[in-house]
Amino acid sequence: MSSYLAASAVPLVQAHDAVLLDLDGVVYRGALAVEHAADSIAAAATAGAQPVYVTNNAGRPPQVVADQLNGLGIPTDPAHVMTSSLAAAKMLAQDLPAGSTVLCVGGPGLAQAMSAQGYRVVTSAEDHPDAVAQGYGPHVGWAELTEAAYAVGQGARYIATNLDASLPTERGMAVGNGSLVAAVVNATGVRPVSAGKPEAGIFHEAAALVGSTTPIVVGDRLDTDLAGARAAGMPGLHVLTGVSQAYDLIGAAAHERPDLLAIDLRGLLEPHPEVTRDDDGSWRSGAGVARVSGTDLHVVRDGIAQSFASLTEISLDELRAACCVAWEAADGGVTLTLQPRPLAVVAA
Fold first, then answer.
1. pTM for this model (two decimals)
2. H or E element: which one contains 209?
3. H/E element holding 54?
4. Active-site pick, 22, 130, 223, 225
5. Which of 35, 170, 224, 344 has its CB 3.0 to 4.6 Å from that of 30, i.e. a possible disulfide?
């Protein structure tokens, strides 16, 4: 059995009591549902794997997130939504007493989370806040960022809901909270602590919402979702419907590697094969075989080694094998020669 990718003889929803789902790039892209998401989530719930939505989007309250999901045909209540705003409020509460003042820079979800935690929310540095909490909000601009900079410069502790530089939408990659945080950091020289993914706490808080003891994390970004799953000590399923694609997986750092791969959320409803190492150093998943020769990655088809860089389409089993052989090479100090290019991944 592979020491890099896990296997499951039964569908994943039978092995886990909760599915901790990222939203952007996994369940929806902007206002549009990802294909197969609604049916797969419904099937997971029916099988007893409770869906919990874990998002670094801090701007919207859980009710608004639930309303959107309901509108996409995915029945949800706010008690199954964990936002990075809620995680930030929980983190602050570890050593900032209720009744303290917090300057909130972001959408209504952030202010609501802080208020629910017992903090007095302010919007000006002239209120001498004890802390500054910054999260994503589509209308955050110079004035709000400047108030944050003033307060941080005056000594307020600084927490960010997340540090995602970009945000996937139906039009492409938009500016994320991390890019806005960078403006305050550039002005003050102070870096915030982060409460959202890839920190472990947000995943533990999400699992606790439903009393889960065997959760699985599902995401589309290696640097947040899958790195966070590893930090939290939870298995991570990577789906190819969002940010990180095949070449990103091949080059994934050890702390960002997923345990399982799927094209989309239908992967929750399927068993996952073992990926094994042959005596000649090749790795095999089903009919997919990959090997490294020198610094070149190859996929073997009908006994013929084809350069990974020449492929325009690859099967999911071939990708599994290619990931394992590439990760083994990287861990052994080999830098593969790769030039990322569009690569379609298909089921068979």
1. 0.90
2. helix 201-209
3. strand 50-55
4. 22
5. 170
- Measured N-to-C along each axis, helices 84-92 and 201-209 cross at an angle, to the nearest 10 degrees, of 110
The structural domains of the chain, ordered by start, are 12-56+198-269 (3.40.50.1000), 85-194 (3.40.50.1000), 276-346 (no CATH)
Token pair 């989007």 in the structure block, residue: 57
Q: Contact at 8 Å (CB) between 275 and 7?
A: yes
Which tokens in the block code for residue 20?
A: 């901790």
Strand, helix or coil for residue 86:
helix
- pLDDT score, position 157: 98
CA 31 to chain CA mean position, Å: 18
For residues 244 and 264, is the Cβ–Cβ distance under 8 A?
A: no
How is 240-255 classified by DSSP, letter by letter?
SSSS--HHHHHT--GG
Query: Has 24 been annotated as catalytic?
Result: yes
Three-point CA angle 181, 233, 39, nearest 5°:
80
Annotated catalytic residue within 24, 164, 223, 225? 24
- Positions in the chain short of pLDDT 50: 1
How many angstroms separate the Cα of 315 from the Cα of each of 219, 291, 311, 318? 20, 15, 11, 5
Count CA atoms within 13 Å of residue 233 on its CB side.
Answer: 4
